[in-house]
Amino acid sequence: MNAISIKNLNFKFSKNKILNDISFEIPSKKICAFIGNNGAGKTTTINAILNLYKTKSNTKIFINGICHRLPQSRCKLGFAPEYFTFGKITVKDLLLIVFNLKNNDGKLNFENEINKLFKYMHCPKNLLAKKLNVLSSGVRKIVNIIQSLLCNPNLVIMDEPTSNIDPQNRRYFYETIRKFHKSGTTFFISTHNLSEIRDFANWFVIIDNGNLLYSGSKDKCPAKLFHEYFYTKSTLWKK
User: Fold this and answer.
1) What are the start-end ranges of the H helices in 74-204?
2) CA-CA distance, 141 to 81, in Å (whole number)?
3) C-alpha distance from residue 167 to each of 26, 41, 72, 163, 226 (Å)
4) Angle at alpha carbon of residue 177, lines to 195 and 80, rounded to 5°
5) For the whole model, what pTM was predicted?
6) Which of 4, 14, 177, 206 could bond to 213 as cystine, CB 3.0-4.6 Å?
7) Cα 221 vs. chain centroid, distance in angstroms?
8) Which element (helix H / strand E) includes 16?
9) Strand order of the sheet with strand 2-13?
């Protein structure tokens, strides 16, 4: 079964066409890098998958075989948006809200989940008592990653998860993703950190100006396209 299946996705804001009839599939248990320059349509695609944007009737999107418009398609899904704000609530309050929303069968224990994820991401326990609005952007990103991994999701969608995160915590992030992937979790990760993701992902979706350039395994990615995006552009974007 495919973790994500998209057919005929078109989208425009006012008169501006953002996505041009793109279609692709991501098999289950893959780590998929979602690549494209700024304005390519990555976040719009993610929002369409999550049913945050209304799509046309001829667009077909399935999450683990379930239509994306149905709430049950998101029962075992984790999502880390690029930006999020939750005011003055504490980290614990946020994580507890997400945990209660996702712990559908009531079998998981909140403390056990937090201990596991804090250990993976090397977070101090006193972080739980801190309010989100006083945290640095990098620490908020780490909290964002942790909330997306609560309750053992079978699919996790992440939009620029490692932006503003220092190299050490990026290493912890990738180590954590590997642990979940070994347990069968599928990842769909939008990122500009191409030098890191090229050796980490095993499935690529590349879009440019709303058009799909490639969707498939790393091994079958055309050499010219792979070199252009994962070497030439990753070098240029670092400058």
Assistant:
1) 91-102, 110-120, 137-149, 167-182, 194-197
2) 9
3) 28, 27, 36, 10, 24
4) 90
5) 0.92
6) 206
7) 21
8) strand 16-27
9) 16-27, 2-13, 60-63, 66-67
Q: Which residue has the tokens 């998981």?
A: 108
Tens-level pLDDT at each residue, the chain (239 residues): 899 999 999 998 887 889 999 999 999 999 999 998 888 899 999 999 999 998 888 999 999 999 999 999 999 999 999 988 777 899 999 999 999 999 988 899 999 999 999 999 999 999 999 999 999 999 999 999 999 999 999 999 999 999 889 999 999 999 999 999 999 999 999 988 777 777 789 999 999 889 999 999 988 887 777 777 666 654 444 43
Tokens of 8: 């005929």
